[in-house]
Design brief:
Helix content: 40-55%
Number of helices: 23
Structural class: alpha/beta
Distance between the termini: 41 Å
Shape: globular
Strand content: 15-25%
Strand order of the largest sheet: 9-8-10-11-12-13
Radius of gyration: 27 Å
Largest sheet: 6 strands, parallel
Number of strands: 19
């Protein structure tokens, strides 16, 4: 922060045995007690005065009482460039990296307004509610009072909000900005919790329709979808991994009749999902994929609109304040959380029921596929093991071919994970996952085992208890990165991950994330970072800053909504 040149007040921190008990502001021959009862009550009353359905903008952070109260209901912008006051109150230290606080301290009012307009657009374009702590208007009227007047004016700036670029606010006289309203359709809650939470924080209207995994008569399904569309009037439907989209194409027929676009965000390989669906290629369908390597193959298969949208993190769930929620038995120098893929592979191979030659060649196929750059099993066979291609193509249904593809990928992942995790043995690692790990690592006494843990209730605290959170990426993504690479840094935790081609577009390796190149490098990398706690702290802090800036689910949904708004135009 750049300190104003003219300092015409004095901020005094009052301590009692090193505990901050008051902040006194000496200004214009008067002294104010900012932590007195009257001051605290004024801040709380200010927070309660915020009009509904608005974005609060605090002019001055005060002692943080108003800020803490406003954060209970969503994001808050704070305009405060008073370094002596901030140092005395410690508010910036307490809330500086809070994911829902947007700090503004530019000395130029116009720059502050521009950044505020960007934030407003990212939050869905709701009206701003300036909430001034009165003393700030007196401290610097040419700055805070000016901003107050400008925010109260309908002419905040001269451009319309674009949630994707998020660099301007609503034009004078333009209608109120409304981002597209999605109808969330799913048969499972997978990732929908993060999507819903992000939409709520952005103030975007949405409705969820859970069609369930149960069998349903066609007419009942049609009536349920039609009723949801009639009541909510969405701008588009949204699914994750096509969950909720039936294989027979009934939902696509409904959406086609209604001319309602469908957006589907794939966070697993779409080629392992779309092959069992009918009527899947349609002009109304827009695909988003977490893996940039799948964009061109999807376009080549006929989809007109395909966009790269990587995973992200929910920094309200993965947050440093979870440090005290981890269980004592989770404490470790190194930990790994993940499935052994033993049972998963067996089930998919059984479903595929491959002919004898393909079954006998399965171990070789999986090993060679895992070591290759191919993402498609069929393409790999065509180029590397063409003698097996006729047997593969003899599988009679798309479902059995997809089951075989999945079995190959899961077996390749099992082999790769086992190779990487075995190299953690010198550090007595904690492995949390399914019982398959005990069988794979039988006799390896250096390992501690823990049952599978809940992503939502356990994992945020689990990451906090490990000095190194180890990551080795599934072989279903040869270039993309998985959820752990975002979640662990969001919580301020250290993650050591394998090098993936797309990682460098998301983080700066060595500065924002720690990377090893090959399984053979794992032991040296772990030893290096265990011996350098300061480097771990530095990388963890930088990684968290990057996640909060670029990789939250609010960012992902803002980009999706921007693209869908253009599609609907």
């Amino acid at each position: 922060m750049k300190q104003p040149a003219a300092l015409h007040y004095l901020a005094e921190a009052v301590l009692d045995e090193n505990r901050l008990v008051d902040v006194r502001l000496h200004f214009q021959d008067k002294t104010w007690s900012m932590w007195g009862r009257a001051g605290l009550n004024r801040e709380l009353a200010l927070a309660e005065s915020r009009p509904p359905q608005t974005l609060p903008v605090l002019i001055g952070s005060g002692v943080g009482a108003a800020l803490a109260r406003l954060l209970e209901s969503g994001p808050v912008a704070v305009i405060d460039r008073e370094i002596p006051l901030l140092e005395a109150t410690q508010v910036r230290e307490a809330f500086g990296d809070h994911p829902l606080v947007f700090w503004l301290d530019a000395p130029d009012p116009e720059e502050t307004l521009q950044r505020l307009a960007s934030w407003r657009a990212m939050q869905g374009g709701r009206p701003l509610a300036p909430l001034p702590i009165p003393i700030y208007l007196r401290l610097r009227p040419d700055y805070y009072a000016l901003l107050m007047r400008r925010m109260q004016s309908p002419q905040l700036c001269s451009k319309a909000c674009d949630p994707g670029q998020a660099d301007a606010a609503q034009a004078p006289g333009a209608p109120k900005i409304r981002l597209p309203r999605p109808l969330l359709i799913t048969s499972q809650y997978f990732l929908m919790g993060e999507v819903i939470a992000a939409l709520q924080r952005m103030g975007v209207e949405h409705r969820m329709l859970d069609v369930g995994a149960r069998e349903m008569e066609r007419q009942d399904f049609v009536q349920m979808v039609l009723a949801a569309v009639r009541e909510f009037e969405p701008d588009f439907a949204l699914t994750v991994n096509h969950l909720g989209v039936d294989h027979e194409g009934v939902l696509m027929d409904i959406l086609d009749t209604l001319r309602l676009p469908l957006a589907s965000w794939f966070v697993d390989d779409p080629r392992l999902i779309l092959g069992v669906h009918r009527n899947v290629v349609h002009p109304l369908v827009t695909l988003f994929t977490w893996d940039a390597d799948t964009v061109e193959p999807l376009r080549a298969s006929g989809f007109r609109q395909v966009h790269y949208l990587p995973l992200g993190a929910d920094p309200t769930r993965f947050h440093p304040n979870r440090a005290n929620t981890g269980r004592p038995e989770w404490k470790s120098d190194v930990s790994f959380v993940g499935n052994s893929m033993v049972e998963k592979t067996a089930r998919r191979l059984e479903a595929a029921a491959p002919p004898p030659l393909l079954a006998r060649s399965f171990p070789l196929l999986a090993r060679e596929y895992g070591a290759s750059d191919f993402s498609s099993v069929e393409a790999f066979l065509a180029h590397r093991l063409p003698q097996l291609l006729p047997d593969y193509r003899s599988l009679p249904t798309p479902g059995r071919r997809l089951a075989f593809d999945t079995a190959v990928i899961w077996e390749a992942t099992r082999r790769y994970r086992l190779d990487c995790v075995r190299r953690l043995a010198p550090f007595s690692p904690l492995v949390a996952g399914d019982p398959g790990w005990r069988n794979l690592l039988e006799g390896a006494r250096q390992f501690r085992f823990h049952p599978e843990i809940s992503y939502y209730s356990d994992l945020p605290g689990f990451y906090q208890r490990s000095k190194i959170n180890f990551n080795c990426t599934s072989r279903q993504m040869k270039g993309a990165v998985n959820q752990r690479v975002f979640d662990a840094p969001a919580g301020g935790c250290f993650v050591l991950t394998d090098a993936q081609a797309q990682l460098e577009d998301l983080f700066e390796p060595g500065k924002e994330v720690a990377v090893y190149q090959r399984p053979e490098d794992v032991e040296d990398a772990v030893r290096r970072y265990l011996d350098d706690p300061e480097e771990r702290r530095r990388i963890s802090k930088a990684g968290r800053r990057r996640v909060l800036a670029d990789h939250t689910y609010e960012r992902r949904m803002a980009k999706m909504l921007s693209i869908m708004a253009q599609t609907l135009a």
